[in-house]
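Design job #97: recover the sequence.
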């Protein structure tokens, strides 16, 4: 190719916007307390009113359009659901910049995890979500679906793995654990038998902020549902307290004249069986002489005196049945805060 055949690159022609009204820019500066250059750009983009500019700069979730407004949303949902059920490959297209790659990765993980939670992913044992049965049976269909998953060890493991993938959490045998800022969070699933003899499921939440020496902890049973009848109770237990010490750093450790040890001391509030807020003062991991006590209720003189009236060790129950929550820095950290049960008051004998 000769030099004469090389086409000359055309010179760029810049189209400059019309300068915004100076008074509008100054008003934005006064209202928003932002540099003039930023306010000028806002005005150029049509945000000349301070309220419109604030909405643009500080968007809220309630300003988003309804997802149902998307054209052919129902067709897209049906197609994605079918692809998940039949293990087809789904292409998620995103931009090639930093936020595009991040959002694409999150979308891929979310679709895979949600499909697994609803039993739409092949290769595991999670039962398919009973969409058709819900219309006819209502909550009973949902209860049966949950029972089918959580009464089977492998199904429960697969379901928790999908939940961990969705939340970026570490799955366990009956819970997932993750961090939220500086807080350690545990979502648990407790399966037991209720008074009716039916299996029941109780999702639990534990949050801990602090360290092994001193920390603030909150624990709650979010609800309890009978997996046969579908009967449910919201927030059957709740506890919030400050705690000090653990098994590796006891709050009390005496060996003479007699052994007296306590791993943890807790002070706070909880719900009693009548769902009333009550004061909690308890010690965990207690050893007095040759007797050991998982938890001692210290909230009243009667509770303490009763300890000495019993001929054998007992578990003094404290308000707020607690989900498993982490003990930061403790040897048992991955698995365990000792669980306590709901309040049981005993009358002290006459002295």
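Job complete. Output follows.
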């Amino acid at each position: 190719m000769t030099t004469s055949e090389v086409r000359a690159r055309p010179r760029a022609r810049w189209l400059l916007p019309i300068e915004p009204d100076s008074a509008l820019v100054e008003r934005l500066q006064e209202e928003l307390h932002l540099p003039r250059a930023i306010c000028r750009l806002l005005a150029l983009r049509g945000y000349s009113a301070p309220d419109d500019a604030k909405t643009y700069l500080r968007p809220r979730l309630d300003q988003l359009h309804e997802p149902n407004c998307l054209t052919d949303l129902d067709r897209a949902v049906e197609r994605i659901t079918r692809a998940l059920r039949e293990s087809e490959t789904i292409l998620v297209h995103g931009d090639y910049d930093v936020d595009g790659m991040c959002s694409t990765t999150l979308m891929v993980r979310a679709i895979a995890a949600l499909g697994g939670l609803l039993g739409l992913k092949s290769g595991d044992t999670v039962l398919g979500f009973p969409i058709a049965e819900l219309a006819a049976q209502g909550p009973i269909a949902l209860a049966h679906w949950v029972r089918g998953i959580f009464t089977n060890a492998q199904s429960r493991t697969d379901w928790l793995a999908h939940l961990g993938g969705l939340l970026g959490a570490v799955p366990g045998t009956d819970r997932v654990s993750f961090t939220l800022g500086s807080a350690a969070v545990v979502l648990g699933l407790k399966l037991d038998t209720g008074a009716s003899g039916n299996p029941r499921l109780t999702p639990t939440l534990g949050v801990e902020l602090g360290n092994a020496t001193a920390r603030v902890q909150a624990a709650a049973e979010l609800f309890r549902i009978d997996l046969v009848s579908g009967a449910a109770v919201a927030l059957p237990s709740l506890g919030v307290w400050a705690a000090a010490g653990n098994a590796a750093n006891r709050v009390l450790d005496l060996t003479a004249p007699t052994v007296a040890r306590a791993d943890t001391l807790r002070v706070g509030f909880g719900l009693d069986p009548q769902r009333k807020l009550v004061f909690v003062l308890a010690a965990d991991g207690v050893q007095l002489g040759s007797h050991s006590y998982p938890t001692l209720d210290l909230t009243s003189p009667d509770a303490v005196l009763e300890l000495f009236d019993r001929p054998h060790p007992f578990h003094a129950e404290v308000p707020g049945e607690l989900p498993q929550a982490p003990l930061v820095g403790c040897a048992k950290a991955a698995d365990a805060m000792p669980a306590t049960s709901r309040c049981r008051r005993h009358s002290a004998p006459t002295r």
